[in-house]
């Protein structure tokens, strides 16, 4: 941001000075001799970002040395905020002052800032040529220079030591956020204030009270987003004070107040109307906007006719100013409503994104709970039923079943712990025993899954898989086979054998799980939530694949899935 502001000031000076160099006033081209001093100050301002103290000393030398050059060659100068100093020199000096106050030790900062101030005063008092008219007095330069110095130090000093004053730094961060959100308004107010500084010079400092009111109005407008309704009341009071004071300041037309209101206050009023309408809506802002409009009307009647305490009474002039005021007010309200609508849409988009993310997270956890935990619990129930049926006839079978139940319980606990870690944010949603331990070898992972399954049905496999199956596809394939085998144990009544086929055909992974069971005549072990097939369809849909599940022609149940091995374009 400092570099951008400095560049903008440099561009303005390049255009202004070049135009002045070839006009009919004075020797042609002599104004171009101002450029070496301007570019030297730009270099010092950029250097100050790394070596603030050295850059401040260099800038002081540049100001004094180039003052001698201006005097020797009788180079005409022009005034901006400070007499005989270009806008680029003023902006560069403020930035150097800021970095020196922020980044150097207190003693060094005091020394280099004092030197910079003295060099500036030397330039203001010494840059004139024989026969030129003074563009400002030393008193005016000290007044406006004091405002710049105090404002810069006010922003620079609080950020000197972040570690020692964390709360102060937090406030500075909030201020920075406010400034970044208001940068278009700050830019417009900055230009308007620069013009008013010039008007104050031309008026012989008679307009200083109006300038102070304009500065206060600008500050209120920039800080308005925090309390827009109160800010509107404060701005109305400041503008009313400015309107009532102006007739007593003996201002002539050298201090421009379009429609009786200074330009900075017009920009501040428009910006605050935008902020208020954006924050609370038009219906709640009407009363305060009417109050501000009334103050503008009073200012127009009191201060449009100058010099002297003359009231504006011409109906045509009043009508013209009223049309202009209504037009500016309408533009401000329209911008505020547009920004309010955009904020509402943005809020809806964010809420929708949050809802979608929460839904996706819940679905991932639901699938994980159903596929992993239900798989192990189903194995426990099946083994417990077998132990109950065979325990009296063959105790050894019951003992073996108890061992398998223990293993399945341990695996279920491990899966539950992974789910808890996922919900607490320690692991990604959907991570689990197989998704965390899945390798790039899908065939080996499927063998491990089938060998460790406890669904009580003998399972054979036919695996013809390459070694480069994409990890996401392989993880989903594991889940599909796992859920299908779980359903075999729960739903396949009288099943004696199950078959798992996994092969690659073309650009797709083909999965098929079949059994020879019959349709269950009773409620399956542990009940059925009806979410297994839904979860499988969701997993396949995420990979843009296809799923088929239903009774096989020769009896039993068959699940088939086709998963693309390459993502869609």
TrEMBL record:
Entry superkingdom: Bacteria
Chain ranges passing through the membrane: 30-48, 55-75, 81-101, 108-126, 138-157, 178-199, 205-224, 231-249, 255-277, 289-306, 318-339
EC number: 2.7.13.3
Entry keyword annotation includes Electron transport: no
Pfam family, one: HATPase_c
Gene Ontology molecular functions: ATP binding; phosphorelay sensor kinase activity; protein dimerization activity
Protein name per the record: histidine kinase
Keyword ATP-binding: yes
Catalytic function, reaction form: ATP + protein L-histidine = ADP + protein N-phospho-L-histidine
Domain Signal transduction histidine kinase subgroup 3 dimerisation and phosphoacceptor: 361-425
Residues covered by the Histidine kinase/HSP90-like ATPase domain: 478-566
Entry-linked InterPro entries: HATPase_C_sf (IPR036890), HATPase_dom (IPR003594), Sensor_HK_TwoCompSys (IPR050482), Sig_transdc_His_kin_sub3_dim/P (IPR011712)
Keywords for this protein: ATP-binding, Kinase, Membrane, Nucleotide-binding, Phosphoprotein, Transferase, Transmembrane, Transmembrane helix, Two-component regulatory system
Entries under PANTHER family matching the protein: NITRATE/NITRITE SENSOR PROTEIN NARX-RELATED, NITRATE_NITRITE SENSOR PROTEIN NARQ
Top EC category: transferase
Annotated GO CC locations: membrane
